[in-house]
Specification:
By secondary structure, the protein is α/β, with parallel strands linked by helices. It contains 10 helices and 20 strands.
């Protein structure tokens, strides 16, 4: 028996605009709440008892994550159809059968009308991350649907949801394969370059796919430059810079494990002889101590703001980080700077960088305004699905 969520009068407006979240403050009451558990499917009605949506119930400020605006059964066929639609988009983007790029995002949550679900493809393995209890309970159906859509092209499906589920859900889970076939972590290709990927132990799903297009732009600007890649993780920007003709690349990350992986990726592509230095150090400390010989600097920090309450502090951190880089970068240098904090919008980030330029006292031009790649689809009705923003700056 599906519980019914009844909205307060007038609170259906966002749903009529096809937004995919229903907040607790919009709800008048829930019929059948006594038998309702987190992750269950619920139907949503207006105050006049008109059906408007069906989705996953969860505990918290976002009470319902909408799956559909139709009264349709959420069964195996439904999952296969949704994943097939996402696959068709990636096929149109030239990603599903590209021999030079064997990793991409198949499902980007709300961008693919599957709120709370992320699926990344690494060769013949699909890695699933559930950000909601409802998606976690459906993970076997999701895995079966992926196999059905891809056929033999996907051999294994790995669930990596233990760190992404809401901590208040109280679900005791561990990561593992959802298919009998298990793939060993190995390397993938991105624009012809090789990267080690360990989806079992690495951050996120194993690799930061969302910077693929922006890494290509670094390759274009790197020739003849001394490059600093901060918050380097697996060294993605470092590899592209080296391939673009950088004279030297320095990769910095606070994690010893990350800089070791960055070094391995550089060796995997260019051998031991390439002038690359991997430094395990806090980026803020490195920027304080560095000289002014770097003329291409990449600032790609983790999300400084996980939610809106800490956005003001995050903006201060972005300002401080960018100001220090602008003070130290060589005249005529190129600065790539990013924010992946969903709670910080493009205008706020740009203002923080503007303030940093003023503090540094440098003349700065914006060369490019960057965002996430095409496989990280942005739902036009759900602007929150656009999270990555970046600027390429020329610093005199």
């Amino acid at each position: 028996m599906i519980a019914n969520v009844i909205l307060k009068r007038g609170k259906e407006e966002s749903l009529l605009r096809r937004h995919l979240w229903i907040f607790s403050g919009a709800i008048a009451r829930i019929e059948g709440e006594d038998n309702l558990t987190e992750g269950d499917i619920v139907d949503v009605y207006t105050s006049e008892r008109k059906f408007i949506a069906r989705g996953h119930y969860q505990i918290g400020s976002i009470t319902v994550r909408v799956l559909t605006f139709e009264q349709e059964e959420i069964n195996d066929e439904w999952w296969a159809e949704r994943i097939r639609r996402a696959w068709e988009v990636r096929k149109a983007e030239g990603l599903t059968d590209n021999p030079s790029t064997t990793c991409y995002r198949l499902i980007h949550g709300e961008g693919d009308m599957l709120s709370g679900l992320v699926v990344d493809v690494y060769g013949s393995t699909a890695v699933v991350q559930c950000h909601s209890v409802g998606m976690f309970y459906a993970r076997t159906q999701i895995a079966n649907a992926i196999r059905k859509v891809y056929g033999d092209a996907i051999q294994s499906v790995y669930d990596k949801s233990s760190r992404t589920l809401p901590y208040k859900a109280g679900i005791d889970t561990c990561d593992g394969y959802l298919t009998e076939i298990r793939s060993n972590a190995g390397y993938v290709l991105e624009n012809g370059l090789k990267f080690e990927v360990n989806w079992e132990e690495g951050q996120k799903t194993g690799f930061f796919i969302d910077q693929r297009v922006n890494r290509e732009l670094v390759r274009r600007y790197a020739r003849g430059r001394r490059v600093l890649n901060t918050f380097c993780y697996t060294g993605g920007f470092s590899v592209y810079a080296a391939d673009g003709g950088a004279t030297e690349v320095v990769s910095v990350d606070s994690s010893e494990r990350a800089v070791e992986l960055a070094a391995r990726n550089m060796t995997l592509n260019f051998g031991e002889q390439y002038p690359h230095r991997a430094v395990a150090m806090d980026t803020f400390d490195f920027l304080k101590e560095m000289d002014d010989s770097f003329d291409l600097v990449i600032l790609d920090p983790p999300a400084f703001a996980k939610h809106h309450k800490v956005a003001p502090e995050a903006l201060k951190a972005y300002k401080r980080l960018n100001a220090k880089a602008m003070q130290k970068i060589k005249s005529g240098g190129i600065l790539f700077t990013f924010s992946c904090s969903q709670a910080v919008n493009k205008e706020q980030f740009r203002m923080a960088v503007f303030s940093a330029a003023a503090i540094a006292g440098r003349r700065v031009r914006i060369l490019h305004q960057l965002t996430q790649p095409e496989d990280h689809a942005i739902n036009i009705y759900h602007p929150e699905s656009e999270y990555l923003k970046g600027l390429v700056l020329y610093v005199e």
